[in-house]
Specification:
seven-stranded mixed beta sheet, alpha/beta, Rossmann fold
Length: about 200
Amino acid sequence: MRADLDVVAALVGRDVRVVDLGCGDGALLKQLIARQGCEGLGVERDDERFHACVARGVPVTHGDLELELPRLETGAFDCAVLSLTLQATRRPVEVLRQMRRVAPRRVVSLPNFAHWRIRLDLARTGRMPVSAALPYQWHETPNIHLCTLRDFEATVAETGMRIARRVLLDAGGRPAARATRLAANALAVRAVYVLES
């Protein structure tokens, strides 16, 4: 399991009803169910990843999270998770609003497109950077809404939610050094947020 998913799992907590939107191969949801006593449901649109969830025994529905999310009952879950997926959605603000509707607690992780290496690579080469955190060429990337941590935090405020917790991550997906907090928008590679109303 990716190191950042351990951070997400810790923020979800124990014994909660959780929906994992864009759940990938189901590794996070499997851990939440098996080790943390959660009840869960995954939503995944990729055929191969959907079948990986099924093979893991993870409850999953096959479909686009932007279409499936409005079908979920209001308040059906205690926590909604969106891990490294928001930037790949067509309507990210609507996704955040729908997450708020289905769960009082939301855990969202995202890459930081303002990280200093991305800025430097872009300035140095004049081309969109490719790195371990952003491994795609510009024409292959699933990321369609690039944002910085400041962009995301402003959007959260505009939607009437508040940030209950923020964990900054390094390139390995682990909590970043304390110094990163001083200039998070430039130094954090990714971040995980807990959003509440």
